[in-house]
Write a structure and sequence with these properties.
Blueprint: H1 29-39, H2 41-52, H3 59-64, H4 67-76, H5 81-98, H6 109-113, E1 119-124, E2 130-134, H7 144-161, E3 171-176, H8 188-201, E4 206-212, H9 216-225, H10 231-234, E5 237-240, H11 249-257, H12 277-294
Parallel strand pairs: 2-3, 3-4, 4-5
Antiparallel strand pairs: 1-2
Helix pairs in contact: 1-2, 2-4, 4-5, 7-8
GO molecular function: phosphatidylinositol transfer activity
Protein name: CRAL-TRIO domain-containing protein
Organism: Sphaeroforma arctica JP610
Length: about 300
């Protein structure tokens, strides 16, 4: 048996990535930004002027508002200037409040929350998007605020790993419902908060969400969450269940999005994966320290 893979931070594999199909992945970043700037020039230029001429915003706020960021917020509100600006300013305010000192510190509560590997970034999908795994069965606390904070931290790490030269702006989310029960199911309020964070503060960041073996209990929860999920997000949700063997539907769907040789064996892949928290988190702490020393913003656009 091969040695378990403990390199859980996103790496750049040497494999060939597939050309991004329309509606699944992105085109070249510079071409896309230029195209949108031309097509929606007035809305883009006006939003940019409103942000960069606003003396109440900090340098960090403006650094967050890259051209690509502005276009994502415009896209999320169908290029309606007023609604896009309201959404963006809401995010800038939220980041100040939620991030406290401008960073999500991996020390303390986040270290504890991450101890079981219930939320982690592992590998890239076929379209060079980072893959974020959520595994509720590994829940190890009842601190719902810090649980969501850990997920936000991992969203940011996904964003930091994205290859803008390839055009990557989105991530692939896999929620594994194996052994999901009332004991480890998050409360409805936590689910709603996470959906709000994802849709309002990370617009246009979700490529696809693959829900693996969702039980009846979650299906009921999902129905209750429907009113809080944007229509475009619903289109990105894929349910798979059953056998993960080659030739089966689950394997077919997963292999459509993922390189199966990077996918853990429990999902029908070839990777022998073992979460080693000490190894994983020591790299997170080193990353955090290097960011602080360089005085670079820890937030991503």
């Amino acid at each position: 048996m091969s040695k378990p893979n403990k390199e859980t931070i996103v790496e750049q594999p040497t494999k060939k990535f597939e050309a991004p199909p329309a509606g699944v992945a992105e085109t070249n970043e510079s071409r896309k930004v230029a195209s949108e700037e031309i097509l929606h020039a007035e809305a883009f230029k006006t939003l940019k002027a409103h942000i960069f001429d606003d003396k109440t915003l900090t340098d960090a706020d403006k650094q967050f508002c890259t051209d690509a960021c502005l276009l994502r917020y415009l896209r999320a509100r169908d290029y309606h200037l007023e609604r896009s600006e309201k959404l963006l300013r809401g995010t800038l305010k939220w980041r100040k409040e939620y991030w406290k000192n401008g960073a999500l510190d991996p020390n303390g509560p986040l270290d504890i929350e991450a101890g079981t590997g219930k939320v982690l970034v592992h590998g890239l999908d076929r379209y060079k998007r980072p893959v974020l795994y959520l595994r509720p069965r590994l829940q190890n606390t009842t601190n719902y605020v810090e649980q969501n904070r850990l997920t936000v931290y991992m969203l940011e790490r996904c964003i930091e790993s994205m290859d803008a030269s390839y055009g990557t702006e989105k991530l692939t989310l896999i929620i594994d419902f194996k052994e999901y029960s009332l004991r480890n199911a998050p409360p409805m309020a936590q689910n709603k908060e996470f959906m709000t964070i994802l849709s309002e503060h990370y617009p246009e960041r979700l490529g696809v969400a693959i829900l693996v073996d969702a039980p009846m209990i979650f299906n009921m929860t999902y129905k209750l969450l429907q009113p809080f999920i944007p229509a475009e997000t619903k289109k990105k949700v894929v349910f798979v269940s059953g056998s993960a063997k080659p030739g089966q539907k689950k394997h077919e769907v997963l292999s459509k999005y993922l390189h199966m040789n990077d996918v853990p064996a429990e999902y029908g892949g070839d990777a022998v994966f073992e979460y080693d928290h000490e190894h994983y988190w020591s790299r997170e702490l080193s990353h955090y320290d290097s960011k602080r020393m360089s005085q670079s913003p820890l937030g991503s656009d």
